[in-house]
Specification:
elongated, homodimer, Tetracycline Repressor, domain 2, 11 helices, 210 residues, mainly alpha, DNA-binding, 0% strand, Arc Repressor Mutant, subunit A
DNA sequence: GTCTATAAATGGATAGAC
DNA sequence: GTCTATCCATTTATAGAC
């Protein structure tokens, strides 16, 4: 009964504190990097006391890992929706490719990628979570799609649908993506990306047309 | 004359201190990330006092940036040597591709890439230096090579040699590269890389064969 | 659970002797 | 140029009141 009373009494603002802390931590870690952010700064940014953070997270490392895994799951949801839209094979590949290539230069995605890459050696589960939630999922989906297209006689992949999918997706991790990762431009050049996707799709189809 | 005497007297170990410091800093920054490394730790690792570091570098940021630019130049030298080896077009592309794809999973290169990606937003010159010394240089070289091949009637690129080069190189930044970046494997799987390079080369040639 | 206050150690950077 | 010793702000994490 004590537990029940507690739950009632605290359903309001208390339950939101962990989320506030995660969001504040995400902002600061993105701006300054894991090692450069202090728990004091996170407490200030979240509008809570430091002791409150330690009431919800064991230490800085656990807060970081917990927050990052949530962020990975949330970010990749958008692109995991990539399903075949109606149209001919070329149009479908172009649409999937454009969505993915543009996703890969979104500032939120780029910032997340930077943190994952930077801290993967110290947080092994993080690199794994990112890979499974994103690249692995989307590669599998595209490979299945290409396999269906081959079964319908629209492509000649020699059964290597997974490798073909990897080749296609790799071409979408293109120079604009790299330039975004390296913070070389103020904002990504979307027309250039569209042209690259067209080029990659054309090349893919020329190579794998029956 | 005082200057001359000083130079004589200090030609031995003193001139090497900056290099010792750079090397120690590289090791620690790679292991722990920029924000997590202290100047005390660098001094210990280099076997010098903290004051000696500050005698050669204005502060932590300048030490990091100076060291990183040196590291970028040194690392990319290996792959910038990539010149056409004798053989037919397919064999040459395969050789270039294999060298580049294997370079991209070397632990030293992966560690450097992680740091550049992590700190590019805070050190804009770093992302620029990395890009110019590596991807930009190699893309230009390959584009020129492909253009010569097209002039000889061995390829049909429609004049878009640069885009073709980018497509080919993007396929070499493949899943093993991504897995290495994310620290998913203990050691890179070279046979898998060779198979991917073969696949990418075949696809490239099927698409662009006259 | 949440706060204020503080402990105990470490951070970047410098002074002054040699 | 190089060292030892040190300044003072900041660090992670906790104690104790509510």
């Amino acid at each position: 009964m004590e537990a029940a009373r507690k739950l009632e009494r605290t359903a309001g603002s208390r339950a939101m504190k962990p989320q506030q802390i995660r969001q504040a931590a995400l902002r600061l870690f993105q701006e300054q990097g894991y090692g450069a952010v202090s728990m004091d700064a996170i407490a200030r940014e979240a509008g809570v006391s430091k002791a409150t953070i330690y009431a919800h997270f064991a230490d800085k490392a656990e807060l970081f890992e917990d927050m990052m895994k949530s962020a990975c799951r949330e970010e990749w949801v958008a692109v995991s929706m990539l399903d075949a839209v109606p149209g001919d094979l070329g149009a479908e590949l172009r649409a999937i490719g454009k969505a993915y290539a543009e996703f890969l230069v979104e500032p939120r995605v780029v910032r997340l990628y930077r943190m994952v890459v930077a801290e993967s050696p110290r947080f092994p589960e993080l690199g794994r979570a990112f890979f499974e939630a994103g690249p692995r999922l989307i590669t599998g989906k595209l490979a299945a799609y290409l396999q269906r297209a081959e079964a319908q006689g629209k492509l000649a992949l020699g059964g290597a649908s997974n490798r073909a999918a990897q080749n296609f997706l790799a071409m979408l991790r293109c120079e604009p993506h790299l330039r975004a990762i390296l913070a070389l431009d103020k904002s990504p050049e979307m027309p250039e990306i569209a042209a690259i996707v067209d080029s990659a799709t054309d090349m893919f189809l020329r190579a794998y047309r029956p």
